[in-house]
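Archive entry: two folds, one per protein. Generate the first.
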Amino acid sequence: MYKVNDVVVYASYGVCEISAIEERDFSGENVEYYVLRPVGDSRNTFYVPTAKSALTEQMRRVYTREEVEELIRVMPDEDFIWIDDEAVRKEKYREIISGGDRLELVKLIKTLYIRRQELLQQHKKLHSADEKFLAEAENMLYDEFAYALGIGKDEVVPYIKEHV
């Protein structure tokens, strides 16, 4: 169980601080919720029922600086996960995004970034669904990297390039 002031990554929403644990009545009965506030956007608030494992399992501890640096170090060695069948590819990429596994997100970003570069050389564009997956994966991973490394989100890509 998490506690107030813990910092977590919540689903695809990014790094959030648990600002409170409180009971609320949103549906006719009092339920205990984690109150999450995104670190980079205090305008939003998420209420996650503490007893709903399907939702609390989407909360993960934030990687440490050392864990982020190790993930950056292994990036060049990671395989591609391109799948030619569009329907199968969409399903696989959805699973990766919803699962939140950082190494799988790295593979996804690497795959789509390289695929985008290949298509640009042919004067073509990445499919819009793939662009959406890339943006979502980058947002998830770079938000956590920025927090763990103590840098701005816009500094993450230059940091990665410098250390790869």
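Generate the second and append.
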Amino acid sequence: MSLHLTLIGIGTGNPEHLTLQAIRAMNAQDLILIPNKGAGKDDLAQLRRNICADVVTNKTTRIVEFDLPVRNETTPDYRQRVDDWHDAIAAVWQATILSHSGARKVALLVWGDPSLYDSTLRIAARLDPQPAIHVIPGITSLQALTAAHATVLNEIGAPFIVTTGRRLRDEGWPAGVDTIAVMLDGGCAFQTLEPKGIHIWWGAYVGMQEQIIEEGPLAEVSDRIIARRAQARADHGWIMDIYLLRRD
């Protein structure tokens, strides 16, 4: 029998971000897989556990946890590090699914949406045999950020770019746009920019009870963001943040 793998966007960890489609999909599964990311990050697994406890009413749906492989940071090439890590994760998925005989409908709960700066679809493509893949869209951190600040993502008729902190740090402000959204930034790459004329809308844990936000001219709020980010990471053991930058 063929495997059906459903990737369910769960927003930013707030159970109220779940769509009715997501709730129906979760209750239709034989197996829901929850990754454990190691010491200091149990909050991430617990949020998934809480979501399942809140909405999964189907008594035949099993909630199964697995240990997420650690990425080998000693490999010099970044893309190779990521590819090797994804191979390892796919192998763990496969082994976990096979250890639960009879599971034909399996789901993973994906932060935000599986299509935006998330590798779940790429990892799923490594499974052999290839399952039938279904995607349930979710609220993204971009939407949660702009909602938290009651602002818009783009100017009228103007483009914007979504990029990473690493690329902003290495390449500077992208050409041809006045608005950029920055994700996956572990080092506050906005520090590398000349702040004059730049406005920032920043948020961490957006959409969650722990949400913190800052907004203002980059020159005025940069240090405050860095301090609040460091404190929040120390308090929780992990942090998910995102920000929007716009030139005047």
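Annotation attached to the second fold: Residues 78-98 form the longest helix (21 residues). The first strand starts at residue 4 and ends at 9.
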